[in-house]
Known about the structure:
Elements: E1 2-6, E2 9-11, E3 17-24, E4 32-38, E5 45-51, E6 57-59, E7 67-72, E8 77-82, E9 91-98, E10 118-122
Parallel strand pairs: 2-10
Antiparallel strand pairs: 1-3, 3-8, 4-5, 4-9, 5-6, 7-8, 9-10
Amino acid sequence: VQLQASGGGTVLPGASLKVTCEVSGDVMGTAAVGWFRQAPGKEREGIACIHTGDGMIYYNESVKGRFTIASDNDRHAVYLQMSNLEPSDTAVYYCATSWKGRYYELEPSFYTPWGQGTQVTVSS
Length: 124
């Protein structure tokens, strides 16, 4: 199993950005994929996850209403659409997969393996 995050960049506050997690291996349809972020000097934070089998979705309260997670099993991809971005959203964004029943807790230790992250910077 391999995951690769892409699509990061530098945007202005209030802008939108979509990041993509490309997934290879036997994941789509059987496991959850989560998006996490880590800002300098801070712990890795789970922000959203989707179970690619039953479609259940969970969000961290800090992004609910602004971020949308979606999966495309045919394209082996999971997307994170981010809107109304704030400087506090600046971080490296990672995706990872989980076969744990409690994947919805967005606990990083429940997720493996991890892809390389993509930098998202929100700055004026």
